[in-house]
Write a structure and sequence with these properties.
By secondary structure, the protein is mostly helical. It is 77% helix and 0% strand. The protein has one domain (2-44). It has 2 helices and no strands. The longest helix is centred in the last third of the chain and has 20 residues, at 25-44. Keywords: Membrane, Transmembrane, Transmembrane helix.
């Protein structure tokens, strides 16, 4: 679940950076959120 959210945030960041050529802080916040969510998922591990 968290990995999916991280992937979506990363894709949105890429779209904002490449397609829309926006240089606002919001784009970088999305990247930071994606990294944080990915790290949380990595350190928590998969609980079955």
């Amino acid at each position: 679940m968290l990995f999916t959210i991280a992937a979506i945030l990363f894709v949105l960041w890429l779209l904002g950076l490449v397609v829309f050529n926006v240089s606002s802080a919001v784009i970088h916040v999305l990247l930071v959120l994606a990294i944080i969510v990915g790290l949380v998922q990595l350190f928590r591990g998969r609980r079955v």
